[in-house]
Design brief:
Length: 173
């Protein structure tokens, strides 16, 4: 029995070696996670920026109220104190950070750096806002932190500006 290989570009690697189905799916394995986290962080940032009640120092639903309510039970009260010095600026910084992380993740531009930013935002929210959640697995910020880690390690291998730039660098002598 003779075995043949498909030679279309979808099945080829840089060295023109045939790719198996398993190798193909492995390349795309982190794409759903990247899309979910990117869209979620862009949405979260825009949601914060467009909510005038949230972007206030005090009042029901404000960033200031949230920070005051979690301060004594957080794992990092010094971080909450830092945010309470200027709650509006902190709220804007978090929102802009979430948008930058989300867009970088979706575009795959500086993907590892964007994922690290997402992990740090999730870590800070876990140590402050979600810390009191009992049992701990009900809090979503720890799950987001863990979801960012594979992207910190692997980056964005497909459908990304990083991959495009990498391919361009390989072609230039």
């Amino acid at each position: 029995m003779t075995h043949t290989y498909r030679t279309t570009s979808a099945y080829m690697t840089d060295g023109d070696r045939p790719r198996s189905w398993r190798e193909q799916t492995t390349r795309y394995a982190l794409l759903p996670l990247r899309l979910f986290l990117g869209v979620t962080f862009v949405y979260a940032g825009l949601d914060k920026l467009t909510d005038s009640r949230f972007m206030a120092a005090s009042g029901t639903g404000s960033i200031g109220e949230v920070m005051n309510s979690v301060r004594d039970g957080s794992a990092a009260p010094w971080l909450v104190d830092l945010a309470l010095k200027n709650p509006e600026a902190f709220g804007h910084a978090i929102a802009m950070g979430e948008i930058a992380v989300g867009l970088g993740t979706l575009a795959g531009l500086l993907a590892r750096l964007a994922a690290l930013g997402g992990a740090l935002i999730s870590l800070s929210l876990w140590l402050t806002v979600s810390w009191q959640t009992d049992p701990y697995y009900y809090g979503n910020d720890l799950a987001y932190l863990m979801a960012w880690l594979p992207l910190v390690l692997a980056g964005a291998s497909v459908f990304s500006l990083d991959a495009l730039l990498r391919a361009r660098r390989r072609r230039t002598p």
